[in-house]
Fold this sequence. Notes:
- By secondary structure, the protein is an alpha/beta fold.
- It folds into five domains: about 1-160, HPT domain (Four Helix Bundle (Hemerythrin (Met), subunit A), Up-down Bundle); about 185-270; about 275-455, Heat Shock Protein 90, CATH 3.30.565; about 460-595, CATH 2.40.50.180; about 600-730, 3-Layer(aba) Sandwich (Rossmann fold).
- The chain contains 26 helices and 23 strands.
- The strands form five sheets. Strands 10-14-15-13-12-11 form a six-stranded mixed sheet.
- Strand 8 and strand 9 form a beta hairpin.
Amino acid sequence: MLDMQNEAFRQRLLETFAQEAKEHIDNLSNGLLELKKSSAPESSKALVETLFREAHSFKGASRSVNIVELEEVCKAMEEVFSHYKLLGLTIPDPLIEIMLEASDLLSTLSLGDELSRRDQKPHVQEIITRLHKQLEPDFLIPTKEMSPLAFVSEVPQKITQEIKPDESPKVQEESKAAETIRIPLKKLNAIMEQTEEMLFAKIVSKRHTEMLSSIMEEIGELKKMQSNPQAMISKLVSVESMMHKAIKQSKGDAREIALSVDRLLAQMKEALTLPFSTLFYTLPKIVHDMAKSVGKEAVLNVIGGEIEIDRRILEEMHDPIIHLLRNAVDHGIESIQERTRQGKSSVGTITLTLNQKSATKVELTVCDDGEGIPPQKIKLAAIKKGIIDQESAEALDEQSILNLVFQSGITTALSVTDLSGRGLGLAIVQEKAQQLGGQAYVQNKEGGGAEFTVILPLTMATFRGVVTSLNTQKYIFPSEHISRVMSVTHDRIKNVEGKEMVVVDHHVIPFYPLHTILELPAPYVESHFVSVVVIASGDELLAIGVEGIDYEEEVMVKSLGKQLSRVKNIAGVALLASDVPALILNVSDIFKSVGMVSLKSAVQKKAVQKQKSRILVVDDSPTTRALLQNIMEMVGYDVVSAVDGLDAFEALQKEPFDLVVSDVDMPRMNGFELTEAIRRDTKNAELPIILVTSLESEEDKEKGMKAGANAYIVKSTFDQNNLLENIQLLID
């Protein structure tokens, strides 16, 4: 038992050490890169002192968990810093490069287990030997903890490793942030205070329950007084008074609870925000290694690292930022020879800046001092890829051509390397920014170099949106993408060269009804006025026609689930204050969709004509059930829902249906069992059945068809048109 307790304690200790080790390694790597950039003697001296203390602390921590290999490397680095600190000399660049290699080795050692660390022993000895080789024995000044190796006059020859041309070092990229984060005690205390206030809600709910119980008792007494009108009137007055008091009390309590919830949510948001530098502290080292792998030199300057942003957004933007830095290193920064020829410093500079633009938005820019983006090369690459034809390309201005770099497959690289050349990186940047509710831009700077700008929200989870309606469904436009909302008469919508346009503030803006974009039927009731939401993406504007504009409110985003993780034009779902589910529109998708909008398909037209067809939707998930029901109701079907197979089978016994759309994995009676039961039922044996499920193995599909299903649709590849086509085919 004692051994088990000791082992458990050691595991906890190692987990704590892993976080500390990462901080020490980041500090050493970034400090060394700063030392390489520093030219002022005083600042260099201060950096060497800081690095000496860092290596010393890391050495002590490694000793406390008995990781000998880490301790030995830290000790050798400490000796180097001690040597140059005492002599007041600047550490030369070749030695800094070796120290950076030592830092990489520290990272490898801290992540590995005991066996893998033993395998690294030769590399540990090699790096220690190389570090000491760089120190002239005559200059070594003994310290209490210096290794005896420091005083050996004949140091073994430096071990080298031949790197073949096709085996260039791969770029080391940091892993995503750990699942644990450090939250300042001040923030936790604030959250605790707000949480304690929520006890008020607990007390209030009990009080309201007691109040309602009293009212129900009074109503019970009231029922007994039917033969005594006078007493009945008196009791009604008493009940009315109690109801008024309950309503007044409820309104006041609701306000207090709403304030408490808002404060708690605000504190939680603040707790989840971290300084930008916290999660991207290793970026300077990554840029250094990237440049080194392609024979270049580059440094990264980070500005605005103190700005706090939602940790989840930082994690989502980790890979896109790496893509931007990789692009700057490989395409922006010139070779050492070319920079020297142009009279530039041989070391390229990349600057990563974070600026808070507003209370809800932050601007991230990555710029380099390279040659900029050649528009002609981008144009030729786009034509070659078939993204744009020659005639259209010639009509584009320079900025429009530059914007093509965000198209998948666009690259000016002559060959594919480990660093770039596939044309995917910048497309990923744009896509991720849009998914987070932001946007990416690019421009060439005056004087040379390219600048990429990404606008991002400061926090996730909640946002303000404008609630609109289309037929019976609610849709939400994120407020941050709305230029304005208005109502216009039909004569304000003009047909210009075959396209509908509307004039807004003297600007002619393309007009598209929302039902056309979503490929749904037109609103049931035509109005004299058209409600219009003008949305913006960058400099582009679109006027979207909706049936009605309701109000603006703060909503919480919920995903559609893994089965429906990607639905075109829909970003998620939210539950409104009225308990009505609403679909959140994906503005970036809408801008893409307007280029492919067409009239409703023949399938949908036929479905509208056949409005009396009745469909039974069976699914135990309320969200999926509501989504499927809305899709079918929007094209004119009469839809009834059931929560599981047993509920559905009971409904089939009571009333007729033309088709069943069912999930498979459900309680009480699953979809396979329901299908078999329907086929055994004489009355419904020929009823068409479509299974819509997340079970996608061939065995499950075969099982579904054997049970008697007419169609089997997998949710992971769900497409509403495919579903509607199957329904139309089976009903006809």
